[in-house]
Amino acid sequence: MHSVSVRYPSLVAALILLLSLCAQASATELYPPRVSHENGVYVVRMAAKLPVRREVLFDAVTDYDHLDRISSSILSSQLVGELEGGAKELHVLLKVCLMWLICPTVRQVQEVVETRPTRLDAVIPGRMKNHFTGTAHWEFMSIGDGTLINFESSLTPRFWVPPWLGTPLIEGILTEESDRVLAGLELLYGNEKTAPR
After folding, report:
1. Among 5, 78, 131, 153, which is least packed, fewest CB within 10 Å?
2. Is the pTM of this model over 0.90?
3. What CATH class is the domain 9-194?
């Protein structure tokens, strides 16, 4: 997932999806995001435990043409086609807010590789006009009747961001988005039997 403009490209869409999935039930456990910065690269790690089967969650995250069901931050999403090597090209249109002041609409292009139903990898290619380059990785692990999702993303802005601002800004955005996504997932996936297919 990639081609975002302001926030944190592939990270934005990927985290929106993760947080959206967490909204599935009151038994959801969201482990707070950890953001680090070294040599111009931001690394974000998050995890969530959801009371929903792994296959249902994987299907939700890979329903590329309907990602807007998960979060109001995703305005639209479209699977454009397959690339060489089996990757899929995904275009996402996001509305991202920066410190509650600026909320631009951002286009994101991503190259996504699925290893169904355990792993999802996305690349934000440098060849595109993305404001960031980077990667995002999702792991889906069955735990009893639920699923543990581990998420990690590495992002390199293509513009200078003061380190004292970047890390807290990303953490703040993730916290805000997590609330939004949790609400969306709870509405959509709280009951697996009625979850959209």
Report:
1. 78
2. no
3. alpha beta
